[in-house]
Specification:
This protein is an all-alpha fold. The protein has twelve helices and no strands. Helix 1 runs antiparallel to helix 9.
């Protein structure tokens, strides 16, 4: 993989960890998710006059991505509400690269080679290992939480494939990205109003700076990934994005003073080994 693309996607992964941390604003998970998604949509709307809209051939992929992202955000907010996210969310992020690699190989004939496969598998295993707590797997297994984690992984796989193909169809990935994020914001606002009905949105308005900052990070993070998918195999880009879990763990250890458990150290080493294999592929 090209050095610039590799470094850019790692930076995007750090931004991804940042906007996920921003979800914990004190609001409930669905409200926080809608707040940040709306922020991303507003920033995209401001950029629209400078970037423009994608060509007609890319619009079916934009629409497909918006629909898939709706289910992704539903699964994400339910995962935050239902399970122990320190365990469940890494399960989703670790499973997604394996699904994506298989899907791109079967659906669009994308080949990533032995080194690429090795990197994806080792990196995914390292991410999954971060779902361990104190050396134990989820105890007892929470079927609902695990189901949401795997459902979220499936949606990550689907939107990664859709956006990779859509951005390539659009040729210029930036108009595609802007259109998709505006669509995401509109759909999530409608979903929120249907789900909650008339509600007092003053708590959300009080945290609008968090929404704008988190939304900007969300747009930057995934915008870089979509751009990278036009230059590198979708499966490798999708796998690199999941290092966001490692950045999240580093934030927890360095700033939240959580303990550096042996499982975390081994997981970090596995992720680094996976990164090296992907870089060499």
């Amino acid at each position: 993989m090209d050095s610039l693309v590799f470094a850019a996607v790692l930076f995007a992964a750090a931004c991804h960890a940042g906007w996920n941390a921003a979800i914990k604003t004190g609001l409930d998970p669905l409200s926080s998710t809608v707040l940040i998604t709306t922020g991303a949509g507003l920033v995209s709307l401001a950029l629209l006059p400078f970037v423009g809209l994608p060509p007609a051939a890319a619009w079916p992929w934009v629409i497909a991505s918006v629909v898939i992202h709706l289910f992704y955000f539903i699964g994400l907010s339910e995962a935050y509400r239902t399970g122990d996210l320190g365990q469940v969310y890494p399960l989703a992020r670790g499973s997604a690269p394996l699904m994506t690699a298989g899907a791109t190989a079967l659906l669009i004939g994308e080949r990533i080679g032995p080194a690429g496969w090795c990197g994806v598998i080792v990196l995914a295993a390292g991410v999954l290992l971060l779902s361990l707590r104190g050396g134990r797997l989820l105890q007892p297994p929470d079927r609902r939480a695990v189901s949401f984690a795997l459902f979220t992984a499936l949606t990550i796989c689907l939107y990664s494939v859709a956006d990779g193909i859509g951005a390539r169809t659009a040729v210029n990935p930036h108009p595609y990205t802007i259109a998709m994020f505006i669509g995401n914001a509109l759909v999530m606002i409608v979903y929120f109003l249907i789900r909650r009905g008339p509600v007092d949105i003053s708590p959300m308005l009080k945290t609008w700076p968090v929404g704008m900052i988190g939304g900007s990070m969300q747009l930057l993070s995934y915008g870089i990934a979509i751009w990278a998918m036009t230059l590198a195999p979708i499966a490798l880009v999708a796998a690199l994005r999941e290092t966001s879990v490692l950045f999240g763990a580093l934030i927890a250890v360095l700033f939240l003073k959580e303990p550096m458990r042996p499982a975390r150290i081994v997981a970090a080493l596995m992720i680094v080994c996976g990164l090296v294999a992907i870089r060499l592929s």
